[in-house]
Amino acid sequence: MFTVVSENSSATFNWLMTELMKNPQVTAKAQAEIREAFKGKKTIEESDIQKLKYLKLVIKENLRVHPAVTILPRACREECEVDGYTIPYKAKVAVNIWALGRDPQYWEEPETFKPERFENSSLDFLGNNYEYIPFGAGSRFCPGMNFGLANIEVPLAQLLYHFDWKLPHGTNSDDLDMSEMPGVSVQRKNKLYVIATPYNPPIEG
After folding, report:
1. What is residue 101's predicted lDDT score, i.e. its pLDDT?
2. How many domains does the chain have?
3. Is residue 163 part of a domain?
4. Which helix (H) or strand (E) holds 59?
5. Please, what is the Cα angle at 143 between 182 and 102, to 5 degrees?
6. Has residue 148 got a pLDDT over 60?
7. What is the domain range of residue 163?
8. Confidence class of residue 200 from pLDDT cuts 50, 70 and 90?
9. For labeling, which of 8, 74, 86, 142 is most exposed (least CB within 10 Å)?
10. Cβ pair 26, 97 in contact under 8 A
11. Beta-bridge partner residues of 122
């Protein structure tokens, strides 16, 4: 479990940084929230993350667009009918999490990275809303969810708090390759290169 969660967290973190570089307005809003909430602090603890409402929206949106696992294999427990097709008992079925998160029937502007879509929404990733199941649903819901989220939330908050980020000279957000590489977890096909500049908060007089 620890191996799978670590690999999935790494892939998710990579996509998060990519989306932040592609959407500088989202980065600015997340950094403003973090730096206001933890002004003057040297480190951010896991217990502090609950204050960061917008950061949590950014992570939720990233899990919609870039779920770490795109396909859930399952076996049918009883014969049933779906859209006119008979699914026999014990048939192997695959739930396409990636497609569910981008379905225009359920999501407005599904290809747009917009964390604000979750701002006044009751949608969560606990398996209660089947159009959004990055951690699965039901009795086989991902047991490593909390561990995985902790591996993302705290490091991301730290990096956005202590550094400003930009793409290398001559590269703009439109140049970012969003191609995916198949595997146990869905990694970016090409590496992301970014420049980190230490953030020096203004000294209040």
Report:
1. 94
2. 1
3. yes
4. helix 53-65
5. 45
6. yes
7. 2-198
8. confident
9. 86
10. no
11. none
